[in-house]
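FAQ

Q: What does a record look like?
A: Structure on top, sequence underneath. For example:
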């Protein structure tokens, strides 16, 4: 996807930003209160994707575990994985998360292959595994269009919400339904084009609730490399990094509470921010 082609669902955060105008915020909730001084320490972030290249210099040795979902005659099975990325996409997401929250532990849950495709049932199995393995934040820069799997993903998203695991889900780059990105229980994310990793928008007219930098983003890539790319896939991990910072500083918050904090400190037009201070990456 080129930078001239904005991903779907990004319009409220780019061309229709005036519609985001809001003046209400939660009194006393500032960025400094939300994540000032936090580094992500103590938070495990799952990345369900194409794998993580553990040795990539921009992942800084922060990958704690690698697993993959194998498809067998008896159904999907989660097994240990090599520390590799089949495509580069997962490593890019990990790099973005670490750029904001450098002390998180990353957990790679590989469900995509070298063509960046995978079975919806493998995706669901990877998400199920994350629910069972003490993951506080899970980045989902992928989605399923399968209507038959709608109830499966709906159940998993609800379980994550009730279990206080924050699912950060990129909206599809094309304007079509995809799951679980459009469920109310997830942090749904689309791209804006401002080159600021700390700039987020809250959309009061979902289904996509949050906008983050996702156009011409410099990212890590396969084989120790780097590139620049555009897509909602690269907006989501910016939100995942911020959520990890909030949970690092305020352990035990529910997804609902974290959403309220992000909405309160968002950069929506119509607000004055005398309390907002630019926070640089730790």
């Amino acid at each position: 996807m080129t930078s001239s082609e904005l991903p779907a669902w990004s319009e409220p955060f780019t061309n229709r930003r005036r519609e985001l105008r809001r003046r209400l915020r939660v009194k006393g909730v500032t960025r400094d209160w939300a994540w000032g001084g936090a580094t992500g320490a103590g938070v495990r972030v799952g990345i369900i994707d194409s794998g993580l290249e553990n040795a990539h210099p921009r992942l800084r040795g922060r990958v704690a575990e690698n697993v993959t979902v194998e498809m067998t005659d008896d159904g999907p099975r989660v097994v240990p994985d090599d520390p590799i990325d089949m495509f580069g996409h997962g490593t890019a997401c990990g790099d973005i998360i670490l750029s904001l929250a450098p002390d998180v532990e990353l957990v790679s849950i590989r469900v995509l292959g070298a063509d960046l495709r995978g079975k919806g049932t493998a995706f669901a199995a990877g998400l199920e595994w994350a629910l069972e393995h003490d993951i506080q934040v899970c980045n989902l820069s992928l989605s399923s269009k399968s209507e038959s799997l709608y109830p499966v993903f709906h159940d998993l998203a609800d379980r994550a919400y009730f279990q206080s695991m924050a699912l950060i889900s990129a909206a599809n780059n094309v304007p079509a339904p995809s799951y679980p990105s459009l469920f109310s229980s997830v942090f749904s994310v689309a791209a804006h084009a401002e080159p600021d990793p700390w700039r987020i928008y809250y959309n009061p007219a979902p289904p996509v609730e949050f906008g983050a930098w996702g156009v011409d983003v410099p990212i890590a890539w396969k084989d120790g490399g780097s590139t620049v790319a555009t897509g909602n896939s690269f907006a989501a991990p910016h939100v995942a990094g911020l959520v990890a910072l909030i949970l690092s500083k305020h352990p035990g918050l529910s997804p609902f509470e974290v959403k309220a904090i992000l909405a309160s400190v968002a950069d929506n037009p119509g607000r004055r921010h005398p309390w907002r201070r630019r926070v640089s990456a730790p």
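Q: Is there anything notable about this one?
A: The chain has seven helices and eleven strands.
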